[in-house]
């Protein structure tokens, strides 16, 4: 395995760790990490049930941590956008239309940016197993919250691992 390949697998495993934390909290098991300059700078897991907010997907959680931190450090919007353009997001499920749109906006606000590149299928079986296990356990939460979450998370019906490179 090449260095970059094993590094990708290492980061995917960290995203899966986040998905496992979500599963332990009876949330749809989706997790992600954001990497900047080779370092994990943020992570997130699905918290839609805990927050009673259907938009609190793993990607939004991780992005908000960074936005808050960078704005607190006094970075301007263009500096934040430039930093995002150098980030890579590793997530255990193909982003829903809401998250994909948000990620696209973050990537494309950089003057030289061209949206984001995307690679799928890495460690897909592990991520699929997590989701299958979760849904086979039955419905631990209210029908409405869960069905809305399923709709948003599985919008594309394609459950595979993805990582995004914003540059
Ligand atoms: Zn989403």
From TrEMBL:
UniProt keyword Signal, yes or no: no
Spans traversing the lipid bilayer: 142-164
InterPro entries, alphabetized: APOBEC/CMP_deaminase_Zn-bd, CMP_dCMP_dom, Cytidine_deaminase-like
Gene Ontology biological process terms, A to Z: tRNA wobble adenosine to inosine editing
A Pfam short name: dCMP_cyt_deam_1
Keywords: Hydrolase, Membrane, Metal-binding, Transmembrane, Transmembrane helix, Zinc
CMP/dCMP-type deaminase domain residues: 6-138
GO molecular function per UniProt: tRNA-specific adenosine-34 deaminase activity; zinc ion binding
Highest taxon in the source lineage: Eukaryota
PROSITE patterns registered for this protein in UniProt: CYT_DCMP_DEAMINASES_1, CYT_DCMP_DEAMINASES_2
PANTHER family assigned: CYTOSINE DEAMINASE FAMILY MEMBER, TRNA-SPECIFIC ADENOSINE DEAMINASE 2
Protein name: CMP/dCMP-type deaminase domain-containing protein
């Amino acid at each position: 395995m090449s260095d970059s390949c094993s590094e990708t697998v290492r980061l995917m495993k960290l995203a899966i760790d986040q998905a496992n934390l979500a599963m332990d909290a009876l949330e749809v098991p989706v997790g992600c990490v954001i990497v900047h300059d080779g370092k994990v700078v943020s992570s997130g897991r699905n918290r839609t049930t805990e927050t009673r907010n259907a938009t609190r997907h793993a990607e939004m959680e991780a992005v908000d941590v960074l936005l808050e931190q960078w704005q607190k450090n006094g970075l301007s919007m263009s500096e934040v956008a430039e930093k995002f353009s150098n980030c890579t997001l590793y997530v255990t499920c193909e982003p829903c239309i809401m998250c994909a749109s948000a990620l696209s906006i973050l990537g494309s606000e950089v003057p030289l940016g061209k949206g984001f590149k995307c690679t799928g299928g890495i460690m897909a079986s592990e991520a699929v197993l997590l989701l299958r296990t979760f849904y086979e356990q039955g419905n631990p939460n209210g029908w409405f919250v869960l069905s809305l979450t399923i709709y948003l998370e599985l919008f594309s019906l394609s459950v595979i691992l993805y990582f995004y490179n914003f540059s």
